[in-house]
Design brief:
elongated, 9 strands, single chain, 13% strand, nine-stranded mixed beta sheet, alpha/beta, DNA polymerase, domain 1, 43% helix, 297 residues, DHBP synthase
Length: 297
Amino acid sequence: MITDNEICKKAANILKLGGVVLSKTDTVYGLLADSQNIDAVNKIYEIKNRDYTKKLAIFAPNVEFISQICKVSESAKIVLQNLLPGHFTFILDTNENGQKLFPWLEKFEDKSIGIRIPKDDFITSLMRETGFPISATSANISANPDSSVFENISLEIQNLVDYIVKDDNIIEKEPSSVIDLRNFEKEYKILRNTRYTIDFILLANAILSKTDLIKITNIGEKTRAELFKIGIYCKEDFDKFTATEIYKKLVNLNKKNKHKMLFYALFCAKFDINCMKIPSDIKQIADLEFSKISYNS
């Protein structure tokens, strides 16, 4: 019996050769191709009978990659860090790196792309195996319904692709929400609404209602993203809790946060001092507090 790893390697090889793969994703079945290969991307248009003026979405491996190829504001990056991987496609303008990476963008006056990070182990493994981002769109003839059930995909589509990954164990069975983040600080646009859109709206409103985003001594980008997940958006929110309370919330959110340097960072942030140059008296207090947390955890 062929293993998932073997299927992934086979699909990756097809993509590397410029082929099109029909595969399950975290939403619905999709048509996948090497996003850097114009001929491969055009095959998807031909298979779907898709209007060439409509761009394909891009599957990206991580938020850092998105930041490298797109123009991402500080506030927009917080959205990406909190909602991806997930069932969201975000519209962003590409930067010079992105325009070089995707040569098919040259024919478009608008250099924006729709980009997402699927919440799907197979797609994640596929991108790792290929080493490149993937162009993707639903596996249907344009204007026809998309599908999360393989048997509902037209034989015309099945016969035109180069490889099929069949698996009806799809997480959500509906397409992603599509949200335009290009002018996020002034306004955002919901281009396709799904039941997950409310998660974006709540986060976006929380971010946009706060002018003083987390810019506190010792609070790095990754920690800031996690603070947003526990409802701490600005210094005013930060000051409502003790360092111990915030630390416990972060550990409950992610057990990997259970380490002393994070507690030092939070504790010193209360005094607005650099935790790498912590005074001995403050360090003694911090050590005592941390020992209590460790004992009770």
